[in-house]
Structures are given as C-alpha cells and as structure tokens.
C-alpha cells in the first residue's frame, strides 16, 4: 500500500495537465477544555504564555510528512490555515484558564508583567510513513520561568503517536489534532502538579 504522500501525488497527476489546483487548508481542531472550578483555587500567581516556537519547516505553512527519519516532505496542496504555533498557544491559554491553578492567565505581550512565564516549542508535528503504516507524531516541550528570580522552576517534554485510521488528509489532520491535544494536556498536567507539589514542600506561597 502506498503512503499517503504517494497517493496524493498520483491523484494530482490523474487530474490532468493544465488544470489549476488550489491548496486545501486545515486547522488543528481542539475541543474546548472542561472547566475545573476550585481545583486549586488559583494557588499560583499570574502566568503569561509566550507564543510557542517550532522549527521553520514545521510551521511555514505546508503540512509535513516523513517517509524516513532523514527525509522531510512537504505537501504542496495541503496547508495550515492557522499557524500551529498560534493554535497550540491558544489551546494552552484556554486549558490553563480552565484548570484554575493560576490566578490569571494571559498571552504574553511586550512590557507585560506576570509572576510566571511559560514558553514552549513544537518539536514534531508530522505524518510518519513506514511501508503500510501511517502515523502522526507530536512532541512538545515547555518550561516555566519565575520572573522575579529568572529561574526555570519546571521543564518537561511530552509526545504522542497515533495511527491514522482514515487514510486521507482529513484523517491525518484529525490525528494530528488529537496527538497535539494529548501531548499538551500531559505537559500542563505535569507543570501544575509539579509546581504545586514543590510549593507545598517548601512552604512557599503564590506571591
């Protein structure tokens, strides 16, 4: 069975020379986070979330696939309508607000002040083809900075791999969304649990 990249290329050839084809665009689709009122009663002070970063090839617009660890392919006619950095950052902000662990959560802006600064990087967000197996992989890393001391008080990386059951681009993007959501949820769970536990052990307060 051909990998998805080969199937899409074959379809393009069959469409005939001289026909105009326009890119189809997609977005990472995340369900609204479930509010958790009173979970930690805003035990942590305000946090500012910087827009997550990623290697240029991952976020330059075209969806990425790999047919080998060394080869990076880019779908010419399947692209992101919204930059994955913006989509994942937005999901992080909404998830932190739903958790109620921080007293306030905002997107970082130049000149803004907050007790904590969260930054991160999308390290993988791609289709991976191996013979008949088609999967997607998402790996995200992040760190939390205490702005007063300029010290990193937490850092972690999380990843998720999902097999693509529906063998079309819609199935690939749906799987990428699920993998990104799972990896992000794991990151944020690790952060809040570890920071709150550290504060409890040291007797520190949120301020």
Strand elements, count: 8
Mean pLDDT: 88
Helix proportion range: 25-40%
H-E string:
HEEHEEHEEEEH
CATH architecture: 3-Layer(aba) Sandwich
Briefly note the structural class of the backbone: alpha/beta
Shape: elongated
**N- to C-terminal separation?**
58 Å
| Radius of gyration from CA coordinates | 20 Å
Strand fraction: 25-35%
Supply the CATH superfamily name.
ABC-type transport auxiliary lipoprotein component
- CATH class, named Alpha Beta
What's the structural domain tally?
1
Largest sheet composition: 8 strands, mixed
CATH topology, what is it called?
Rossmann fold
Number of separate helices: 4
List segments where confidence is low: pLDDT < 50 over at least 5 consecutive residues. 9-16
Throw out a few tags for this protein.
4 helices, 207 residues, eight-stranded mixed β-sheet, alpha/beta, Rossmann fold
Structural topology:
Elements: H1 4-14, E1 24-26, E2 47-49, H2 56-59, E3 62-68, E4 71-80, H3 84-99, E5 105-107, E6 116-130, E7 133-146, E8 151-163, H4 169-202
Parallel strand pairs: 1-4, 2-5, 2-6, 3-6
Antiparallel strand pairs: 3-4, 6-7, 7-8
What is this entry, summarized?
The chain is α/β, with parallel strands linked by helices. It has helices at residues 4-14, 56-59, 84-99, 169-202; strands at 24-26, 47-49, 62-68, 71-80, 105-107, 116-130, 133-146, 151-163.
């Amino acid at each position: 069975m051909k990998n998805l990249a080969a199937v899409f290329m074959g379809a393009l050839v069959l469409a005939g020379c001289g026909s105009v084809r326009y890119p189809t665009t997609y977005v990472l689709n995340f369900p609204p986070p479930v509010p958790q009122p009173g979970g930690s009663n805003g035990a942590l002070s305000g946090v500012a979330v910087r827009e997550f970063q990623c290697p240029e090839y991952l976020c330059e617009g075209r969806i990425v696939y790999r047919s080998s660890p060394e080869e990076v392919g880019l779908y010419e006619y399947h692209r992101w309508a919204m930059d994955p950095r913006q989509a994942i950052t937005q999901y992080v902000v909404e998830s932190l607000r739903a958790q109620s662990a921080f007293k306030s959560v905002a997107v970082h802006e130049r000149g803004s002040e907050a007790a904590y600064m969260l930054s991160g990087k999308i390290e993988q967000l791609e289709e991976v083809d191996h013979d008949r197996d088609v999967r997607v992989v998402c790996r995200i890393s992040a760190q939390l900075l205490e702005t007063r001391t300029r010290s990193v008080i937490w850092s972690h990386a999380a990843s998720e791999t999902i097999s693509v059951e529906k063998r079309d681009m819609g199935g690939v993007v749906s799987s990428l969304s699920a993998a990104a959501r799972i990896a992000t949820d794991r990151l944020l769970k690790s952060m809040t649990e570890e920071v709150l536990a550290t504060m409890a052990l040291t007797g520190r307060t949120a301020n």
